[in-house]
Amino acid sequence: MSHPDVDVLAGVALGEEAGADLQAHLDSCADCRLEVAELASVADAVRADAPLSTPPARVWDAIRTELGSTVGGGVPQSGATLRAVPDRTPVAPRTPLRPLVGWLAAAAVSGMIVGAGATWIATRPGPAPVVSPLARVDLTTLDTGEVLGEADVRSDAAGVTLSLRTQPLDAGEGYLEVWLINRDLNRMVSVGVVPSGGAEFAFPIAQRLLDEGYVVVDISREAFDDRPQHSGDSVARGALRL
Question: Residue 216, Cα to own-chain centre: how many angstroms?
């Protein structure tokens, strides 16, 4: 009985679909079925246990040695004896399983290394965004000039951010609100609310506000009422130089 080439059986072990003729042979040949099962077991073990890292040079040298030992399609050596099976017609010797196991392991490990590399490329973090500081100012009390914090504006790919860092502030019976006041001191917009405990806060703002002159950073005490206007009670203030 003639048997399929060992490379064909390796393909089946790795998941390739067997054609009708090959499947018919496998159904009738216990030796070939056993060989496919052994090869599949090796492939599964390698996939399950091999580390996803770049192997040292000596591993690739061993792989090249194994691959070189199978070049030639498994042609029998001169003087090789026929394999005899009781009650069956002798058949030509098959390519030894060990070189193929080495090839199969190399193929599986190489596939996992390539897959791990592709996963790393797809999931690796992108470069850190470039942040450009635009201006910084101390936030001081209007009467004594005591420094209670600082503010700065920064620009990156996502837009412009106003950042505040303050010590604990007194909100009185209300809350603390952050404003951008125009240079004319008549127009202003509310940026957000901060707790009185002091910390670092960041607010996204529109570049056009800075372009239109809204450069005075103000923190005010506000009462819990129905008046959205500035209360006139500023805790700290500072003008950005842009």
Answer: 41
pLDDT value of residue 178: 97
Give the residue ranges of DSSP H helices in the chain: 6-13, 20-28, 30-49, 57-70, 97-123, 207-211
Q: Report the C-alpha gap between 105 and 119 in whole angstroms.
A: 21
Backbone φ and ψ of 127, nearest 5°: -65, 150
Which SS3 state, helix, strand or coil, does residue 16 take?
coil
165 close to 154: Cβ distance less than 8 angstroms? no
80 contacts 93 by C-beta, under 8 angstroms? yes
Q: Which residues sit opposite 180 in a β-bridge? A: 189, 217
Question: What are the tens digits of pLDDT across the range 54-68?
Answer: 666 766 677 677 676
Please give the structure tokens belonging to residue 228: 């959205």
| pTM, two decimal places | 0.48
Residues 125 and 141: beta-carbon distance below 8 Å? no
Whether the pLDDT of residue 28 is over 80: the answer is yes
